[in-house]
Amino acid sequence: MTAKSSSRTTVRIPDALTVKELADLLRVSPVEVIKRLMTNGVMAAQNQTIDYDTAAIVAVELGFEPELEAAAEPEPGAPLVEPEEEPDDPASL
Questions:
Q1: How does strand 16-18 pair with strand 49-51?
Q2: Which residues, 6+ apart, have CB-to-CB distance to 6 below 8 Å?
Q3: What is the pLDDT of residue 1?
Q4: CA-CA-CA-CA torsion for 51, 48, 29, 41, nearest 10 degrees?
Q5: Smallest Cα–Cα separation from 9: which of 59, 73, 55?
Q6: Cα dihedral: 38, 42, 46, 47 (round 10)
Q7: Nearest to residue 64, comparing CAs of 7, 3, 4, 5?
Q8: Whole-angstrom Cα distance, residue 27 to residue 7?
Q9: Residue 33 and residue 60: Cα distance in Å, rounded?
Q10: What angle do CA 63, 65, 69 make, to 5 degrees?
Q11: Residue 79 gets which letter from DSSP?
Q12: Could you point out which of 35, 39, 68, 75 has its C-alpha 20 to 30 Å from the C-alpha of 56?
């Protein structure tokens, strides 16, 4: 008995993405992704966001090896939270 080599292509998937973005990554029609989602009990339009776990299930079903894309690390010294904007002073308008 011989072992088959894995012919799955690895695809890096972010933590969240739209159905259309997933279709583009997998080079398939958004309709094909939507069909796979529906098979798994998920109703989503092509502009709706899905999480990594859901996207990974679809990717595996379409013959891909999903891999979580690492989130971009903030630059050292960069603020972790965006500063709030000061409200406009009506007197200065």
A1: antiparallel
A2: 65
A3: 43
A4: 60
A5: 59
A6: 170
A7: 7
A8: 16
A9: 12
A10: 135
A11: -
A12: 75
pTM of the predicted model, to two decimals? 0.70
pLDDT at 32: 98
Query: Is there a contact between 69 and 14 (Cβ–Cβ < 8 Å)?
Result: yes
Distance between CA atoms of 3 and 20, rounded to whole angstroms?
A: 35
Helix/strand number for the chain, H first, E second: 3, 4
Query: Which of 20, 12, 73 lies closest to 49, judged by CA?
Result: 20
Contact, 34 vs 28, CB < 8 A? no
Q: What per-residue confidence (pLDDT) applies to 72?
A: 65
Per-residue pLDDT of the chain in tens (93 residues, 90 and over written 9): 444 446 789 999 999 999 999 999 999 999 999 999 999 999 999 999 999 999 999 999 999 999 999 876 666 776 666 667 777 777 777
